[in-house]
Every structure is written in structure tokens, then in C-alpha cells.
Specification:
Elements lengths: L9 H8 L4 E2 L1 E7 L2 E7 L2 E6 L2 E8 L6 H6 L1 E6 L5 H8 L6 H5 L4 E2 L7 E2 L4 E13 L2 E13 L6 E4 L2 E4 L1
Antiparallel strand pairs: 1-11, 2-3, 2-6, 4-5, 5-10, 6-9, 7-8, 9-10, 11-12
Length: 165
């Protein structure tokens, strides 16, 4: 049976979703000498056995292809002290990749993906599945290594602005 669905106005949907608080994350990857990082709020835990997370990335940005081809990513949880880093990777600024990565100190754990050294938590993942869903790709990653720092205020995004908790 096919349902007769009325399309939701995208602007109305985005306005409503702006009231939804999301934890600000930096997702990073590398392929050879090329690196990419993107500020996102669309990420979550899927399972603890095996440890699995998912991220959602816009598939219309061709620069995101590296995430679909590298086979690895790191999900870095940002704290309140990372607001300028979040802006650098959000696309609000016109910085080069090297300028963006200069906002933080990065290292690698297990997969070779860039991990933010002072992230509140960092999940180093190998891609296990990619599903296309409308304008985005959902990337599932098995967590190969994890690291977390001392508890600090979290960086949240709500009502089109940053907040802390």
C-alpha cells in the first residue's frame, strides 16, 4: 500500500528542528595526505556491543566524498572551550583545511583518523556500513578505540546558536 503523504515544507521543518538541542561534534577523516573535518550535531550511539556509533553527512557536498571512501572516521565530542574550533569546521568561515586543523591539536589512535587531543570524548571508528537517506548519508562506525578527558561543560547547539551544559 502506498501512502499519500503531504510534503513537509523544508523551512518549517528546519525551524522546528532548531529547537532541538544537539551536542556539537567534530567528525574527521583522512585518506592518504588528505584530511577533512565537519562540525555536526547528527551523531549518536547505536550499540555498546559491538561499540557502534553513527554520523549523518550531507551527500551534496562533494568534499564529504572522502568520508565515503576512507573507511575511517573519528567522532570528537566538543566542549564549551571548543566554540571557535566548531565555527572553523562548520563552514561559517572560509578557512582552508590546514587552517581549520590548526585550531586544535590532533593525533591518531587506532585507525589513522585525526582525533582531537582534548575532545571531551573521542571515538575512533572504522566504517561498517553507509546508508543513503534523502539528502544525507548515514555512516555507521565500529569503535576501534576511545578516549575521554576530564568532565567539562559540553557544547550544545540550539535555536541556531551555541549553549553550554
Amino acid at each position: 500500500m502506498v501512502l499519500d503523504r503531504q510534503r513537509m515544507d523544508p523551512a518549517l521543518y528546519r525551524d522546528a528542528m532548531s529547537r532541538y538541542a544537539g551536542h556539537v561534534q567534530l567528525v574527521t577523516t583522512a585518506l592518504g595526505d588528505e584530511r577533512r573535518g565537519v562540525t555536526i550535531t547528527a551523531a549518536c550511539s547505536v550499540s555498546d556491543n559491538p561499540a557502534t556509533v553513527l554520523i549523518c553527512l550531507n551527500n551534496s557536498n562533494e568534499k564529504n566524498e572522502i568520508f565515503f571512501n576512507s573507511g575511517i572516521f573519528a567522532l570528537n565530542t566538543l566542549g564549551a572551550h571548543h566554540q571557535s574550533l566548531a565555527d572553523a569546521f562548520s563552514g561559517k568561515t572560509q578557512l582552508t583545511t590546514n587552517e581549520r586543523f590548526a585550531f586544535g591539536k590532533f593525533e591518531t589512535l587506532a585507525t589513522g583518523a585525526p582525533v582531537l587531543s582534548d575532545a571531551l570524548a573521542a571515538f575512533d571508528c572504522r566504517v561498517i556500513e553507509i546508508k543513503q537517506a534523502s539528502t544525507h548519508n548515514i555512516i555507521f562506525g565500529e569503535v576501534m578505540a576511545v578516549r575521554y578527558s576530564e568532565a567539562k561543560p559540553a557544547l550544545l547547539y540550539m535555536n541556531r546558536g551555541y549553549h553550554t551544559l
